[in-house]
Amino acid sequence: MADALTLRTMTRSEVDFAVGLAADEGWNPGLSDAGCFHAADPEGFFIAELDGRPVGVISAVRYGGGFGFVGLYIMVPEARGKGYGIRLWRHAMAHLEGCNVGLDAVTEQEATYRRDGFTSYYRSARYEGVGGGETPEGVTALDGVDFERIAAYDRCCFPGEREDFLRAWLKAEGARGFGVLDGDRLTGFGVIRPCVSGYKIGPLFADDGDVAERLYSALIATIPGEPFYLDVIEPNAAAMELAGRHALKEIFVTVRMYTGGEPAMEKDRIFGVTSFELG
Question: Which UniProt keywords apply (predicted)?
Fold first, then answer.
């Protein structure tokens, strides 16, 4: 049966299928995530087929600067435990040869990834809240901010260049974004997007807790009464304080892991992770 397994790059429409599997698993993806994900690296999404039937998916996105990220690793239940998953994994990792590869692992799988050469660096926690409140002063709609400023800020907070992804993410249907400017200087920005259930904030990048607070308030003011989710890295104490100050409920945690050491990025500016699937 293993010889009947086919591994290949997904088409754009098959990325929709992969995100649908993520929804079935309860990962609550964004409604426009598939198009944005594909824009990051059209060659970085892989599907396993058994006798022409899809049985597994994975993303292995190559960013600029020699950085890659693995996510969306899902086998359909009836194909698990048969060796198909590891073949798909190895196929995807070959796409990232030469990269420092990152992923966000659920804690139950941390040991598995360690055996495959990944090292754990820090935890992230997903928090849940309910939207509402007033838009604070001093924030501006992100579509009025020059994209190059946004991309430059993003490069401080992410290990690789991802401008194609970022352009798609900011323009995704239903997404709302805000920035804070100090004169001509961007001091932070954030995005909120509709998901299968509620909304997710990500990224939320800011110079300090005060800027993050303003952006957070502006984002949740757009969704009164709706549930939202924010993924916070534990090394950023100010981000953890923001979650605590607003009495957000912790849902689950992941572990950030890398194959080639922790890359340089300003974690004290990361108040909300962009996506557990793509980093």
Answer: Transferase
